[in-house]
Amino acid sequence: MHEEVAGRSVGLTFDPLSRQHALVEIVYRARDFSSRRYFAVSAILRCGNYGHHSRDYVLAPPPLPVADDAPPACVGGVLYWMSDPRLGRSRERAVVSFDVATRAFDVVPCPPCIAAWSGITSPRRASVAELGGALHAVLADPAANSLDVWRLERGGGWGRACVIRLDGAPPGYDLGANDVVPLAVDPDDGRVVLSAGRRIGLYDPAEQTVRDLRSLEGTEDGAAALVPMVYEESLACYPCRRARARRLSQS
């Protein structure tokens, strides 16, 4: 038996009911960008020892299709995804939230400049990030080679946090060729850690410059994937799709 999966997004959070880390999985069984039709299922997976996971709770489908090309952000026990405007009825972007304590999905409107989406070939890519304990929405603009970063305030409104300008940055930080996303922000001076595929850089907002912290380019492991993570407490791994498909094909 072999399972064909059209798309999958997985977020790690902490379940206060079981007092364990949990994985929230959203799987596309089918999706068609021409007709905008899709079929998605979601569930909570309980994290076990040695990389083993079991389905603990089947959820209702999310209210909007979520983008699976960027990981969700976790803020205060709530997971957030950027929606996928290529699917479903809405042609605007929004943020889909999931509160693990209440087992409920919800929708958070995006800032107008991020909600607007010009079509399936639009080069402006949107994502979510947890920075300084708050939810941020990020719009990558290849034409301006900049990241427009917005912060969700306590009252529910959005305020512009910063604009990260990448002109003059070292090779590898060009938004026309690579995805560049913020990972963390220094609370003292506002410097931002950036991930750019095989590079990790530090952006200085005062100087508007990027300094390389780590790069796999030109090394023996340059062909490997660099997956940066910000560790705050113990984390659980998620089995890769290829290994899972191999196990299913042998069953």
Summary?
It is built from 2 helices and 16 strands.
Largest sheet properties: 4 strands, antiparallel
What's the helix-strand series? EEEEEEEEHEEEEEEEEH
Strand content: 35-45%
What is the terminal-to-terminal distance? 6 Å
Spatial strand arrangement across the major sheet: 1-2-3-4
| Number of helical stretches of at least 4 residues | 2
Ranges where pLDDT stays below 50 over 5 or more residues in a row are 234-251
Question: Could you say which overall geometry the principal axes of the C-alpha atoms support?
Answer: globular
Level of helix content? under 10%
Number of domains: 2
Strand runs, count? 16
* Radius of gyration over C-alpha positions, nearest whole angstrom: 19 Å
Mean pLDDT: 82
- Going by helix content, strand content and strand pairing, the class is mainly beta
Protein name: F-box associated domain-containing protein
List the helices and strands and how they pair.
Blueprint: E1 7-15, E2 20-32, E3 37-47, E4 53-59, E5 73-75, E6 78-82, E7 94-99, E8 104-109, H1 112-115, E9 125-131, E10 134-141, E11 146-152, E12 158-165, E13 181-185, E14 192-195, E15 199-204, E16 209-215, H2 241-249
Antiparallel strand pairs: 1-2, 2-3, 3-4, 5-6, 6-7, 7-8, 9-10, 10-11, 11-12, 13-14, 14-15, 15-16
What tags apply to this protein structure?
single chain; 251 residues; mainly beta; 2 domains; 4-stranded antiparallel β-sheet; 2 helices; globular; disordered C terminus
Describe the structure.
The chain has 251 residues and is mainly beta. The protein folds into 2 domains: 1-109, no CATH class; 110-228, no CATH class. Helix content is 5%, strand content 45%. A hairpin with a 4-residue loop joins strand 7 and strand 8 (104-109). It is globular.
